[in-house]
Amino acid sequence: KVLVTPKSFGLYKDQAFALLREQGYEPIENKLGRTLTVEEILELAGEEAVGIIVGIDPLPGFALAQFKQLKAISKYGMGMDNIDLIKAKELGIQVMNAAGTNHISVAELAITLMLTMARNITSVAAKVKGGKWERSIGYELTGKKLGLIGGGQIGREVAKRAIGLQMEVSIYDPFWQDTAFAEQYKIQIISELDILYQESDIISLHVPYLPETKEMIDQRALKRMKSTVMLINTSRGELVNEDDLYEALVNNQIYGAAQDVFSSEPPEADNKLIKLDNFILTSHIGAFTHESVERMVLYSTRNLLEMLNG
Ligand code: NAD
């Protein structure tokens, strides 16, 4: 048996399920149509599953230890922060992510959020729909300085698109080695985060959630940014201290922020950020395009079979 948790998997499941069945694996579908809890995962798959194709549903160490037959976890996506990788290794459970399947879609969303915020699209649309004709003045992106934190698959795709929009792009990534890419696209590689904070008109986060990146955007970082900065987060909610961000937004210490991700998803109904006009959001849809979902379904299935069959 193989547990398949992501709801969007269902859109392109036929080919994937045929592949699994060809090799003797029977899929268990998530019929609830939402992210599962640890208890639900264990109930569905604890006894029988040899593999899991998992979205953002939690797989902490204590749960991994309770599976009776689990051999492999295939992440339907990129960020593996919902899986206890250390415990998985300890238990001999293999883990792979679907790298290279959703970076274009996430990059396009980051650019979309920049343009949406620069032209006040959400507030203008809400006002006009509410009966108030408003023509608000926004900003151009051309010539603006974009600071990318993290220059991996997504960061690079954002960089290429931003260069196309005639922005000036800088990247902070302590593991950066690709001088050819930086030269080709005329990207400045910055070795100090504080410089990126001070110089950027727009800052976009493209790092994984790790102990060292947890709440990297806090009061200290926000204080170093320009008062006109737009902050974009399509990576993980945990990268930002949401209380500090709220204070910065409510005091107009920064121009605005856009998030696709939250430390708790869905965000609590009383989340203070959501009410602010200079805060815009999407509902963790970075990877949710038909093209990307189709690739994630196929790659995560192939990855699982590769791990199970050796
Ligand atoms: P990637 O592994 O290709 O790139 C991550 C980059 O971050 C690497 O180049 C790495 O060197 C760099 N990095 C690591 N630690 C850093 C640090 N402390 N400071 C600066 N840079 C650092 O990953 P990716 O495909 O570009 O994805 C990035 C993140 O985006 C994922 O980890 C995931 O959390 C998030 N993501 C979100 C969605 C969504 O739906 N919104 C979809 C896919 C990925």
TrEMBL record:
InterPro entries, per the entry: D-2-hydroxyacid_DH, D-isomer_2_OHA_DH_cat_dom, D-isomer_DH_CS, D-isomer_DH_NAD-bd, NAD(P)-bd_dom_sf
Molecular-function GO terms, alphabetical: NAD binding; oxidoreductase activity, acting on the CH-OH group of donors, NAD or NADP as acceptor
Regions annotated as coiled coil: none
Family to which the UniProt record says this protein belongs: Belongs to the D-isomer specific 2-hydroxyacid dehydrogenase family.
Protein name: Phosphoglycerate dehydrogenase
Keyword Transmembrane included in the entry's annotation: no
The organism's taxonomic lineage, starting at the top: Bacteria, Bacillati, Bacillota, Bacilli, Bacillales
Domain of life: Bacteria
Alphabetical list of PROSITE patterns matching this protein: D_2_HYDROXYACID_DH_2, D_2_HYDROXYACID_DH_3
UniProt source species: Paenibacillus psychroresistens
Residue intervals of the D-isomer specific 2-hydroxyacid dehydrogenase catalytic domain: 14-310
CDD domains for the chain: PGDH_like_2
Keywords in alphabetical order: NAD, Oxidoreductase
One Pfam family per UniProt: 2-Hacid_dh_C
Boundaries of every D-isomer specific 2-hydroxyacid dehydrogenase NAD-binding domain copy: 111-286
